[in-house]
Design goal:
The protein is an alpha/beta fold and 447 residues long. The protein is 43% helix and 14% strand. The structure holds uridine-5'-diphosphate-xylopyranose.
Length: 447
């Protein structure tokens, strides 16, 4: 009999995971405590923009014409408990208000709500990013509360999906990391991931704490790479060097590698910033805070980028205040191919300039609705061309393909001043300069 799978929490991670599990051939039941979310998913609609996810979902959601019917949704933990052999916990762990530590309350309520309904042998698999030590604690809690007792096991299986590539990363993971306390957990997860394993995805088995640390250390490493190149950008600016050339040149060293060396206004999103901070907070609790002191610097280099972008904009406008100046902002999301504006550097910069009196008009291909919700007082335009109309300066802050394909000559006809600041080092300077623009980018010589 094929395993039956539940996915608890149908946000970014959960919705993608549920659809991917159905694609792999399993019967899947997705659960969320927000009924509106469940209703949307039942109609085959995805609550966020993620390339390929809606198609995948519609291929499997029961009741949609032509679907496999393998994917259903519910709000009932009782139904989930009765249905599943393997339960994936995919709820989020946001940063606590006013603290660095992460908020475990959604994870804890998911475990507490599910456990009383586990009346037969089952594997519970944590996918949420949690502070090291959580899995061991949750395993005890589960054993005590589940009627099936020790027949219920816990495994930790961190998720590394990138927004914008969530479907691909889930169906074809570059590694599967599994923290277990017994053999059954490993066996069942090998069954769940049989397809990617057959494709050659490495399967790495370890204890709970190591598996929890893999996720936070991977994100810390990525953040460190980005802040490293952004620190080099600061030095390049001081020395009149070119950080883009520098990154290209050091990237040829295989030990360094080219990826994640794009200097700009830095990282944001729902993961990297809060995971760094939660990691530092947890290390402090464990008495290992010194080991992670450097992450504080990684965080501040990153946050400094946003302020620096604001200052460059001020400089481009002649060095005075922003009052009465028209600033066009291209990009609101924290990265392209996503509608996510959580801790978005782009929106942060737009907001700072607006709060200092600038007349800011934002355009983003997918993030407008979310941006408006977070920052309703900014100006918004329906197209890039409308956003730049009459602008004294144009800021390129999220590297959507659409922006790389803009024609500088066409934009040049409608702006007040042909001035562009590239906060992502993603535009072609020669192209813009040829069309009569003053092009400036972070960490690059100004002419
Ligand atoms: C990240 C991790 O990559 C993923 O493995 C983890 O599961 C969740 O967190 P994601 O938040 O989707 O994924 O974004 P990512 O692609 O890592 O980019 C993070 C931020 O760094 C973005 O704001 C991006 O613009 C920025 N970035 C990335 C740079 O500024 N420079 C780079 O070279 C790369």
């Amino acid at each position: 009999m094929a395993l039956k799978i539940t996915v608890i929490g149908t946000g970014y991670l959960g919705a993608t995971h549920a659809a991917a599990m159905a694609e792999l051939g399993f019967e899947v039941l997705g659960l969320d405590v927000v009924p509106e979310k469940i209703e949307m998913l039942q109609r085959g609609e995805v609550p966020m923009y993620e390339p390929g996810l809606e198609e995948l979902l519609r291929r499997h959601v029961a009741g949609i014409e032509g679907s496999s019917g393998r994917l259903r949704f519910t709000t009932s933990y009782e139904e989930a408990g009765a249905f599943g052999d393997v339960h994936f916990i995919c709820v989020n762990t946001p940063q606590k208000h006013g603290e660095y530590a992460c908020d475990m309350s959604y994870v804890e309520s998911a475990f507490d709500a599910l456990a009383p309904h586990l009346t037969r042998p089952a594997l519970v698999v944590g996918k949420s990013t949690v502070p090291v030590g959580s899995a061991a604690r949750l395993a005890e809690r589960l054993a005590a509360a589940a009627p099936a007792g020790v027949a219920v096991e816990l495994a930790w299986n961190p998720e590394f999906l990138r927004e914008g590539f969530a479907v691909q990363d889930t169906l074809h993971p570059d590694r599967i990391v599994v923290g277990v306390a017994g053999e059954r957990g490993e066996e069942l997860l090998r069954e769940v991931y049989a397809t990617p394993l057959a494709e050659g995805s490495p399967f790495i088995v370890m204890d709970y704490p190591t598996s929890e640390l893999v996720k936070t250390s991977a994100n810390s490493f990525l953040a460190t790479k980005i802040s490293f190149i952004n620190a080099m950008a600061e030095v390049c600016e001081a020395a009149n060097g070119d950080v883009v050339k520098l990154a290209e040149a050091i990237g040829h060293d295989e030990r360094i590698g080219k990826k994640f060396l794009r200097a700009g206004i830095g990282f944001g999103g729902g993961c990297l910033p809060k995971d760094l901070r939660a990691f530092m907070a947890r290390a402090g609790e464990l008495g290992a805070d010194q080991a992670l002191t450097f992450l504080r610097e990684i965080d501040s280099i990153n946050m400094r980028r946003r302020g620096h972008m604001v200052e460059l904009t001020r400089e481009a406008l002649g060095g005075g205040g922003f009052l009465g100046k028209r600033v066009a902002v291209l990009g609101a999301t924290f990265k392209p191919d996503s509608d996510d504006v959580r801790d978005s550097p782009a929106l942060n910069v737009a907001g700072q300039i607006h709060l200092q009196g600038g007349q800011v008009t934002v355009y983003d291909p997918k993030g407008m609705e979310n941006a408006r919700r977070v920052f309703p007082t900014l100006g918004y335009a329906e197209t890039a061309l409308e956003a730049v109309r009459g602008a004294d300066v144009v800021l390129h802050l999220t590297e959507w393909r659409e922006f790389r394909e803009l024609d500088p000559a066409v934009l040049g006809d409608v702006v007040a001043e042909r001035r562009i600041l590239d906060g992502r080092n993603a535009l072609d300077p020669a192209l813009w300069r040829k069309a009569g623009w003053t092009y400036r980018a972070l960490g690059r010589p100004s002419a």
